[in-house]
Amino acid sequence: MSKYATGKHSKAISDRSGMEFPYREMVREWNGSFVHYTEYEPKQPQLEPKPIGGDGVALLNVRPDRTEFPTPDFLPNNPFSITNGTKIMTVSFPDYSTEAQGGELNYVRFQGVKSAVGARSIEQIELSSTLNANISATATSITLSAGDGSFYLEPISYIVIEKINSVTGLYENEVVYYESVSIDVGTSVATLNNCVRGTAARFRGTTFSNTTASSHLAGAKVFGARAASIDPDTVVTGAQPATIQQYNRFTVTMIQNSTSTTTGGGLQCTVGPLNDRS
Question: Distance between CA atoms of 267 and 269, rounded to whole angstroms?
Answer without folding.
Answer: 6
